[in-house]
């Protein structure tokens, strides 16, 4: 376990040395402040459009950070020729994969913490109340969704040759899941066999990341999600994380390191 | 040749020719119909394609009106043909039918059933309490305004945006001055819109209690309708009868309240010609005729 944490620690240090997070965080703050300064019929209490814009930017930024950070982890080690010395130490390949995953996931968690604190402060400045549990649920679901994305990207970084192609493919896959996965079964109904079965199979096989997108509930001040369903969603995410990480470990075990 | 003086003179000559060319082209560019220079930021960036996005933001406002519970293109949209925030103003014909509460239908599978716990799944309106059913918070309808403003900026020729914005500003936020302002902005952009004149008349009548101005505005609306209606295609004519019915019935009520019963009857008869429920208006006419008869009864002397 210590080995895994050591690798994860290096990944976290890398995140705060790079400028991606700072740039995205500052851009998010600037856009939100500009939008907040817009005068809409002299009413200073209008807040939901601001929450929507802020959460949209948080989602985009977090996905960019998660995918770009993860996709370059193992390819960068290989390009810099540090992978072999790393594995020469008492560190198994699976520990390296798990360490990279944990590091990226924790790094995403830290960035999300900053983003959600800013989001909370922004909405409290207009709404004058803090629905902390709602924000907690939204942030934790978001973080677990990023866990699935990180695990999937890590697997991709072992399958695809370049980190750029892996990042692009991951962005397309994650975007497609977020936008259409919920309706894939309805689309399947309109198709003929065997395409219908294929689409149905995809519908049940893919990780439904859109389940973790509870922005509408937060923006429109809906009541809390039942804690039972909240916990089940986290288990669902952990299940997919386990599947992707197992696959990544299996792929990496057979992969040449130089 | 390479002396600084030569460079300076060449630079000067270039500047003079640039200035001369700009001065020559500027009037032509201003007169050019395709110029975007005089428009706002959306006009400059998007040109006429901005109108495509305007409807999206109008629908977005309606999604906010439902606190996020809104059908996608994959769901049954029969109950959302007309945006509810527009239909609730009474100035737009409601074409909705179907179940607005259950457009999601029964759950299709376990993923669908599980997923419904993570997005709004109950039909509510912001002016009726919204997601937390707080009837004291009907002012929350203000949340639709940013999207309506954006929609109006993107497509200034759509009268419905001004009507809906003005209605909610006036009715739920008691911001009559802003409502008045947006309607006049609408009239500047759509001078032939009898829909906007109808809403403006309602504002004068209900908020300012200025019956004369309301009458003038509504009568102008009727005149415009009579001018434009014959030029519309039959399908459009069907839709536009609704606003004429609204204009004439409101004029009828206004005249009735003012005691001008013959005028009121005339307006109700005009409304009857375009109404989808003429029998209901006939009852109004009969009631007014009865009232008129009672008024003149004392003048009638018994024959014997």
**Can you tell me the overall shape of chain A?**
globular
H and E order of chain A: HHHHHHHHHHHH
Give the count of structural domains of chain B: 2
Number of E strands of chain B: 0
Structural class of chain B: mainly alpha
Distance between the termini of chain A: 26 Å
Mean pLDDT value of chain B: 83
Largest sheet of chain B: none
Report the radius of gyration of chain B as a whole number of Å: 27 Å
Q: Report on the biggest sheet of chain A.
A: none
Assembly type: heterodimer
Helix content, binned percent of chain A: over 70%
Structural class of chain A: mainly alpha
Shape of chain B: extended
Query: Average pLDDT value of chain A?
Result: 89
C-alpha end-to-end distance of chain B: 123 Å
> What is the strand content of chain B?
under 5%
Biggest interface pair, counts: A-B, 36 and 30 residues
Indicate the low-confidence ranges of chain A by residue numbers.
none
Question: How is this structure best described in words?
Answer:
The complex is a heterodimer of chains A (258) and B (304). By secondary structure, chain A is an all-alpha fold. Chain A has helices at 2-17, 20-36, 48-71, 73-79, 83-88, 93-127, 132-159, 163-180, 184-189, 195-205, 215-219, 227-254. In chain A, 78% of the residues lie in helices and 0% in strands. In chain A, helix 3 (48-71) packs parallel to helix 7 (132-159) and helix 7 runs parallel beside helix 12 (227-254). Chain B is mainly α. Chain B folds into two domains: 36-156, no CATH class; 192-298, Tetratricopeptide repeat domain (Serine Threonine Protein Phosphatase 5, Tetratricopeptide repeat), CATH 1.25.40. Helices cover 62% and strands 0% of the residues of chain B. Chain B has 13 helices and no strands. In chain B, helix 3 packs antiparallel against helix 6 (145-154).
């Amino acid at each position: 376990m210590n080995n895994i944490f050591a690798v994860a620690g290096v990944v976290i240090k890398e995140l705060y040395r790079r400028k991606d997070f700072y740039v995205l965080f500052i851009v998010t703050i600037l856009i939100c402040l500009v939008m907040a300064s817009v005068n809409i019929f002299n009413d200073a209490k209008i807040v939901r459009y601001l929450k929507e814009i802020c959460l949209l930017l948080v989602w985009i930024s977090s996905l960019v950070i998660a995918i770009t950070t993860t996709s370059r982890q193992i390819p960068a080690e290989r390009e810099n020729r540090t992978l072999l010395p790393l594995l020469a130490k008492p560190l198994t390949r699976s520990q390296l994969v798990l360490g990279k995953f944990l590091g990226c996931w924790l790094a995403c968690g830290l960035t999300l913490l900053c983003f959600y604190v800013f989001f909370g402060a922004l909405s409290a400045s207009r709404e004058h109340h803090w629905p902390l549990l709602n924000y907690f649920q939204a942030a934790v679901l978001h973080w677990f969704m990023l866990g699935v994305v990180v695990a999937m990207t890590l697997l991709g970084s072992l399958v695809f040759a370049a980190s750029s192609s892996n990042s692009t493919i991951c962005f397309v896959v994650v975007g497609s899941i977020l936008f259409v996965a919920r309706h894939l079964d309805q689309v399947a109904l309109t198709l003929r066999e065997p395409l219908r079965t294929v689409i149905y199979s995809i519908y049940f096989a893919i990780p439904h990341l859109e389940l973790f997108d509870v922005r509408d509930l937060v923006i429109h001040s809906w009541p809390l999600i039942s804690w039972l369903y909240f916990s089940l969603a986290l288990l669902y995410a952990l299940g997919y994380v386990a599947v992707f990480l197992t696959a990544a470990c299996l792929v990496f075990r057979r992969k040449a390191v130089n | 040749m390479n002396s600084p003086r030569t460079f300076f003179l060449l630079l000067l000559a270039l500047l003079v020719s640039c200035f001369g060319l700009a001065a020559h082209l500027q009037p032509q560019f201003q007169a050019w119909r395709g110029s975007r220079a005089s428009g706002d930021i959306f006009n400059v960036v998007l040109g006429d394609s901005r109108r495509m996005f305007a409807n999206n933001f109008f629908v977005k406002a309606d999604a906010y009106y439902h606190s996020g519970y809104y059908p996608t293109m994959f769901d049954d949209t029969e109950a959302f043909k007309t945006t509810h925030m527009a239909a609730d103003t009474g100035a737009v014909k409601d074409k909705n039918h179907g179940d607005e509460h259950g457009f999601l239908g029964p759950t299709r599978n376990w993923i669908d059933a599980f997923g419904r716990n993570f997005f709004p799944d109950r039909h509510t309106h912001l002016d009726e309490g919204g997601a937390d059913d707080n009837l004291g918070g009907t002012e929350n309808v203000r949340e639709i305004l940013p999207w309506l403003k954006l929609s109006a900026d993107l497509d200034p020729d759509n009268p419905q945006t001004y009507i809906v914005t003005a209605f909610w500003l006036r009715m739920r936020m008691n911001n009559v001055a802003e409502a008045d302002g947006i309607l006049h902005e609408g009239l500047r952009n759509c001078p032939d819109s009898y829909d906007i004149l109808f809403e403006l008349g309602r504002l004068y009548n209900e908020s300012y209690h200025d019956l004369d101005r309301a009458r003038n505005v509504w009568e102008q609306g009727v005149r415009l309708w009579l001018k434009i209606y014959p030029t519309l295609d039959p399908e459009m004519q069907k839709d536009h009868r609704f606003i004429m019915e609204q204009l004439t019935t409101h004029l009828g009520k206004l005249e009735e309240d003012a005691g001008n019963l013959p005028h009121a009857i005339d307006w109700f008869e005009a409304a009857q010609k375009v109404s989808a429920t003429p029998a209901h208006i006939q009852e109004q006419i009969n009631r007014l005729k009865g009232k008129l008869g009672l008024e003149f009864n004392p003048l009638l002397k018994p024959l014997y």
